[in-house]
Structure formats: structure tokens, C-alpha cells
Design brief:
Structural class of chain B: mainly alpha
CATH architecture of the domain at 1-87 and 206-243 in chain A: 3-Layer(aba) Sandwich
Radius of gyration of chain A: 28 Å
Order of helices and strands of chain B: EHHHHHHHHHHHHEEHH
Number of strands of chain B: 3
Helix content of chain A: 10-25%
CATH superfamily of the domain at 1-87 and 206-243 in chain A: P-loop containing nucleotide triphosphate hydrolases
Shape of chain B: globular
CATH topology of the domain at 1-87 and 206-243 in chain A: Rossmann fold
CATH class of the domain at 1-87 and 206-243 in chain A: Alpha Beta
Strand content of chain A: 35-45%
Shape of chain A: globular
Number of helices of chain B: 14
Number of strands of chain A: 18
Order of helices and strands of chain A: EHEEHEEHHHEHEHEEHEEEEEEEEE
Radius of gyration of chain B: 21 Å
Number of helices of chain A: 8
Largest interface: A-B, 51 and 40 residues
Strand content of chain B: under 5%
Number of domains of chain B: 1
Strand order of the largest sheet of chain A: 5-6-7-3-8-9
Distance between the termini of chain B: 37 Å
Oligomer: heterodimer
Strand order of the largest sheet of chain B: 2-3
Helix content of chain B: over 70%
Chain lengths: ~400, ~300
């Protein structure tokens, strides 16, 4: 199979300046070179993407995957090594980059298309399609400054895909316009796949990779950590990212006057062992040890669970669970037993708060300070682990005859 | 799907010159479109539009005529034409340098997000200023009619040659200042100051004979140093081509304006400057390509 993108021993260093001499005067007065450290964003990466492949680049934030994509696009140059691309490239990295607010949609289409390497003739030929795809027929002669942000990216996307690329670079999830338009974009990308065009796409949403890609690479701290079959790569990614190690408590936002102080928080399983990794269906006990410096009559202890997208999964407290605290003086332990964790898979954080009953006054609040992870215990997909039992029975040996 | 040879791109440190030239040719339409954008944006929502471009030289004529002819009793005949010859070349010079120096910072959203040969940005700045030059040249042509100055063979020979020379020199300088300014933001301030001095070191307001005569008294080398300024050769050629008189008589005294030499001398000067500017472009482009690889990161 022919190669579409060949990445040979590519490294990239960035300079991290300690104190940047940004003017000639500083350069001359200081004489010595500005002090900087070389930071290796990518080190010795070699990847071959075959023509027609949909190639996924995965890695956590800051791993260097976006840098690599930018280099494939020619926006930044590698420090060492070489990238060869075979075929016209379009990138959906920055939609509508270079749109000028004072120009009309029509003028911007022509300008943007020529920035992306399309000739005037080609643009004229595609113009109606571009406008129709962006659904901006009525607004095309309006200045872009009056466009909504949705209209803006729609036009940007429409131009980018009409460049007729042989290689398409896509960064992260496409959040373009409303749901209907998003579906249209994804449809278009799918048809690109069917037409045998090459797609390189960067994401940290690992789930989507095996569904969409037929090859993938996992980049971790600038190194190529795994490459090949998407499912294998994602397995390596998960293992590296989550590991089996204990998740450290992170110092989240903390506030309150600490008249009642959260001394210690333990997250344990049903058997009483400290844990930070659970499985769907496990019990989780959150134990909060408190120290009240004086007698306080108005008090309530609460917990909240958030997922990675910051969605509140559950928030409850001693009042809502009908275990009100009459008063506090001295040391206490408040335990929340969460039974049958219903999460499928992912990372979560716990917030713990000690407040007055009306929430107005905060004694001690630790925002998203306690992380834990949940692993799936079934092969089902989705957000929730609902225990499902399957039963198959034959009703008859004959099928129902029609008519 | 067939891949055209032109669509194969090699991305590596220190891109080859031949690749860059090929890329620039491919993207020539982008230069045209960027120039068009500059002009459109500049005069969008303004009633007079490109007439503003023409009002600048018209105002210059008025001011210099009042100050130099009326207040200072300058006796150079048809002084507005004289001044306009130099000012038009100077406006192109100053405008191009002034807008290319900020062209990367002003277009950082493009540079950091899309691939295209980066040289396009300063070149488009020059292009936009060239368009202004043409508008302003219309004012000059109008004034020629007004002052009854004929267009001669010398005009047709010298003006285009001077313009081409100026553009070549601009290409070299603009590449350098544009890329340098990304690393040292002082460059644009330094340039502003430099241009101010440069304007008065170029025989635009005063006739070249004046400094040459004075400098000759100090030693033979000084007039030669004065002539090293590439803008001097450009401005002199336009003055010779359009204004045409090399001397005049006022109050019975013979006053020297330009040098008593044939148009060939001016052409030779332009040829020397052009040749030097090719070297300048080579150096400028080398600097440009050397500094360019970290461009997107510095912005």
C-alpha cells in the first residue's frame, strides 16, 4: 500500500525561556544569550500512514500529539528528522483561521480557499457547494463580523472540506454548530473514508478510536509508546494512563473558616481496605473525620461525585439522607456508604463539604480533592453499569407466515 | 487516487530554496488575494474609498507648496511636481516597510494555524502599497497636465526602471525586518526612527546638487557615500524622468538641481542598485529561512 504520510525520526524541541529577552536592548545589555531550556516535545517518532487509512493519534494532554499533527500540516517544522506527505492536505485544526471580520462571507471564502491552496477557478467551481454546505445562502454577502460563532465555523468547515484533500487532518472532537450540522460533518468525514482518502486524527477520547480508525499510535511524553492495531494501542494507552497505582489526592480548591475541620478522608471498599480503584457494582465507603473546635449547633456534612466532564453524578448530605447532626463538639467520623457503584468506566472525583444547614456558611469545603477510578466489570458499553440478565427462549419452531 | 508531484511535500528543518520557489509560485494567487484583502479592508465602510489614497499626495503638494514656496521663498519652478516625484517613491518605500514589519504579528492567527509559504505576507504588504502607488501616480499624471509638463522618452525609460529597482530592494529589506520583528519587537520602533532620518537623507525635498556640492568640499568620498543610499538612485531617476529639468535660472543666478548627465547614467545607477538588491534578497531570504522555523512558536 502506498504511503500517504511518512514520519521519519522526527524530534521537536521547544525553548522554554526563564527570562525572555524580548528586545534588542536587553539582548545587548545582557550580552549572554537568554537562558532557556530545551524541552523535548517529541523524540524520535517514526510513523507510516498508508493511503486510505484512518489513523488515530492518542495521548493525554501535553503528550505532543497535537504538535505532531501541526508538523504534518507544515505549520511548524521539526527540529530533526523529516516528514513527507503525499497529496493535498486540508486541516480541520482551526476552522475559519484567517477570516477577516470586515469582509463578507463571499470574500472570505475566496481568501480562505486561497490560503488553503485552492486556485480561484477551483473556488469558483465549488463556491455554490461551499455556501450550500454551510447553509449560509442568505448571509453570504454579509460581513463576517455579524456572523454567529456557529455560522463562522460552519463556513470554515465548508471551505476546508471543499479543498478536495487527499489527506485530512482532524483535531479532537468536531464541535461544529448544532447537532444536525455535526452529523453532516461526520457523514462527510465518513464518505472521505469510503473514497479512500487518508485521515489523521488526534484525540484523547480513546473510546472513539477503535470504532473509527484502522490504525493508531499512542504518544506519551513525546515518545511513541505504542503503534498498530487500534484496540491494542488503546489498551496500552489505558494501562499507561490509569495504571494500577493508587490515585493521589489532588489539592483542589479548599475554603471555609475551619471551625469544623476535615481532618482526614478515607475511601475504602466494603472490606475496609483503602482503595482508589473500584469496579462497577462495588461498594464504596467515604469516611470523613471531623474536628469541631467548639460546640456548633448548625452543621451538615455532604459529599458530591463528579465525572471527568464535571457532571454532577450525585450530591447528598446528612440532612438529605435523614441523618441530621444535632450538634458537634470534638471529633467525629461521618461515613457515607455508597452501594453498588453504577458507573461503567472512568475517573471520578469527590467533593466534601461541611456547612450550615442553609449552605450559607462554609466550615470546611474540599472541592474535587479525592479522585478514584472505576473499571468496568462487564463488556457492555455506555455510561452506566446496569446489571443485565439475558434470557433467550424459543417460542415456536415455526415462523409466523405472512398474510 | 493519483497524487500529483506538486502535492508531495517534504517537511524538514532547513527547507531547500528550490522547494520554496516552487511553493511561492503555487501560492501566487494568495499574494493577489491578500493584496485585495488589504485594500478592501482598508476602505471598507468608507465613502471615498481609494480616493483617500490619492488625497495624501494632493495634501502633500498643498503643504509643501505653502511652506516652501510661499513661506521660504523657494524658487524651484513647478515645485509641487518636484516634490511629488520623490514623495511617491518614498510613500511606497515607507508604506511597504512599515506594513511588512508587523505583517507576521498582525497575521499571527494565520501563521500559527495554516501552512503557506511565509514570505507571502511581507510580499503582500509590498503589493498593497504598490496599488496605493498607482493611485497616487494618477495624481502625479493629473498634475503634469495641470503644469503642462510633457511625458517624454526619458519618463518612459526611467520611471518603470526606478519602480522595479525600488521593488527589488524592498523585497530584500521587507523579508528581513518582518522576520526580525517577531524575535525582537524593537525592530519596528527602530525602523520608524530610521525611516525618519532616511527620508531627510534622500533628496526628496531638496535638490541633490545641494548636498553633493557641500559634501564635495569635505572630501571626494562623501558624495559617494551619499549616493550609496538606494532610495537616492530611485528618487533621482524619477525626478529626471518626470520633472526633467536639471537646472534653472533664478534672479540671474544659475541653480543646479540634478546632475548634468545623460539618462544612461541614471539607468546605470539603477542597474547597480538592482544587482545589489539581488544580493540583498539572497541574504534576506537566507536570514528569513534561518529564523523562520521557530516562527509559529514565537508568535
Amino acid at each position: 500500500m502506498a504511503t500517504a504520510v511518512s514520519i521519519e525520526n522526527v524530534s521537536k524541541t521547544f525553548r522554554v525561556y526563564h527570562e525572555r529577552a524580548n528586545s534588542l536592548k536587553e539582548r545587548i545589555v545582557n550580552r549572554r544569550r537568554a537562558e532557556y531550556e530545551e524541552f523535548w516535545a517529541l523524540r524520535d517518532i517514526s510513523i507510516d500512514v498508508s493511503t486510505g487509512q484512518t489513523f488515530g493519534l492518542v495521548g493525554p494532554n501535553g503528550s505532543g500529539k497535537s504538535t505532531l499533527l501541526k508538523m504534518i500540516g507544515g505549520i511548524i517544522l521539526p527540529s530533526e528528522g523529516r516528514i513527507t506527505t503525499h497529496g493535498r492536505i486540508a486541516s480541520l485544526l482551526e476552522l475559519g483561521a484567517g477570516f477577516h471580520p470586515d469582509l463578507t462571507g463571499r470574500e472570505n471564502v475566496f481568501l480562505n480557499a486561497s490560503i488553503l491552496g485552492l486556485s480561484r477557478k477551483e473556488t469558483e467551481r465549488n463556491f455554490d457547494d461551499i455556501v450550500a454546505f454551510a447553509e449560509l445562502e442568505e448571509f453570504i454577502d454579509m460581513q463576517v463580523r455579524h456572523y454567529s460563532s456557529g455560522m463562522y465555523v460552519r463556513l470554515g468547515f465548508a471551505v476546508a472540506i471543499h479543498v478536495d484533500p487527499q489527506i485530512l487532518l482532524v483535531d479532537e472532537v468536531l464541535s461544529v454548530g448544532d447537532e444536525a450540522f455535526q452529523r453532516k460533518c461526520i457523514d462527510r468525514i465518513r464518505s472521505f473514508q469510503r473514497q479512500g482518502r487518508t485521515i489523521v486524527f488526534v484525540t484523547h477520547a480513546a473510546d472513539s478510536v477503535p470504532k473509527i480508525c484502522n490504525a493508531a499510535a499512542f504518544i506519551f511524553k513525546g515518545h511513541l509508546a505504542a503503534i498498530g492495531d487500534p484496540s491494542e494501542v488503546i489498551r496500552a494507552y489505558r494501562k499507561q494512563l490509569y495504571g494500577e497505582a493508587h490515585l493521589e489526592a489532588v489539592p483542589g480548591e479548599e475554603r471555609g473558616d475551619k471551625q469544623i475541620r476535615i481532618d482526614r478522608v478515607r475511601i475504602r471498599d466494603g472490606a475496609g481496605t483503602d482503595r482508589s480503584v473500584f469496579h462497577s457494582g462495588d461498594d464504596m465507603h467515604i469516611e470523613v473525620e471531623l474536628d469541631a473546635t467548639r460546640r456548633i449547633d448548625d452543621v451538615m456534612v455532604g459529599i458530591a461525585l463528579y465525572d471527568e466532564a464535571d457532571t454532577l453524578l450525585i450530591g447528598t448530605n446528612t440532612d438529605l439522607e435523614e441523618r441530621p447532626i444535632d450538634h458537634m463538639q470534638g471529633r467525629y467520623r461521618v461515613s457515607f456508604a455508597c452501594r453498588n457503584l453504577p458507573m461503567q468506566e472512568g475517573r471520578y472525583t469527590i467533593t466534601i463539604g461541611v456547612t450550615t444547614r442553609d449552605h450559607r456558611h462554609v466550615y470546611h469545603w474540599m472541592e474535587k480533592a479525592f479522585p478514584f477510578r472505576c473499571d468496568r466489570s462487564s463488556l457492555a458499553v455506555g455510561a452506566l453499569a446496569i446489571p443485565v440478565t439475558v434470557n433467550v427462549e424459543q417460542l415456536s419452531e415455526q415462523h409466523v407466515a405472512e398474510g | 487516487m493519483a497524487v500529483e508531484a506538486a502535492d508531495i511535500r517534504v517537511i524538514e528543518p532547513g527547507t531547500k530554496v528550490t522547494t520554496r520557489i516552487r511553493d511561492l509560485i503555487r501560492y501566487h494567487e494568495l499574494i493577489v488575494n491578500l493584496v485585495r484583502k488589504e485594500l478592501r479592508v482598508k476602505y471598507k465602510n468608507s465613502v471615498l474609498g481609494f480616493v483617500w489614497s490619492m488625497l495624501n499626495p494632493a495634501m502633500t503638494i498643498a503643504i509643501f507648496w505653502i511652506v516652501f514656496v510661499k513661506f521660504l521663498n523657494n524658487s524651484i519652478p513647478k515645485y509641487p511636481i518636484w516634490i511629488l516625484c520623490g514623495i511617491l517613491a518614498w510613500n511606497l518605500w515607507q508604506g511597504s516597510l512599515g506594513s511588512s514589519v508587523g505583517s507576521f504579528i498582525g497575521n499571527s492567527s494565520l501563521v500559527t494555524k495554516v501552512y503557506f509559504p511565509r514570505e507571502v505576507l511581507p510580499l503582500a504588504s509590498i503589493g498593497a502599497n504598490l496599488m496605493h502607488f498607482f493611485f497616487q501616480f494618477l495624481v502625479l499624471l493629473g498634475s503634469l497636465v495641470l503644469f503642462r509638463i510633457p511625458i517624454t522618452l526619458a519618463t518612459i525609460e526611467l520611471v518603470p526602471a526606478a519602480l522595479v529597482t525600488e521593488l527589488l530592494v524592498l523585497c530584500g529589506f521587507c523579508l528581513i525586518v518582518a522576520v526580525m520583528n517577531v524575535y525582537f519587537r524593537d525592530v519596528q520602533h527602530l525602523l520608524e526612527l530610521l525611516l525618519l532620518a532616511w527620508f531627510w537623507m534622500t533628496p526628496i525635498v531638496y535638490p541633490v546638487a545641494l548636498p553633493i556640492q557641500h559634501l564635495a568640499k569635505l572630501g571626494n568620498i562623501f558624495p559617494k557615500i551619499f549616493m550609496l543610499n538606494p532610495m537616492t538612485s530611485v528618487v533621482l531617476a524619477i525626478q529626471r524622468g518626470v520633472y526633467q529639468h536639471t537646472s534653472y535660472r533664478a534672479a540671474g543666478v544659475h541653480q543646479q538641481l540634478l546632475l548634468h548627465v545623460s539618462t544612461l547614467w541614471y539607468l546605470r545607477n539603477l542597474a547597480i542598485v538592482s544587482a545589489a538588491s539581488i544580493a540583498l534578497i539572497a541574504i534576506g531570504w537566507a536570514i528569513f529561512r534561518r529564523l523562520e522555523w521557530r516562527l509559529a512558536e514565537e508568535l
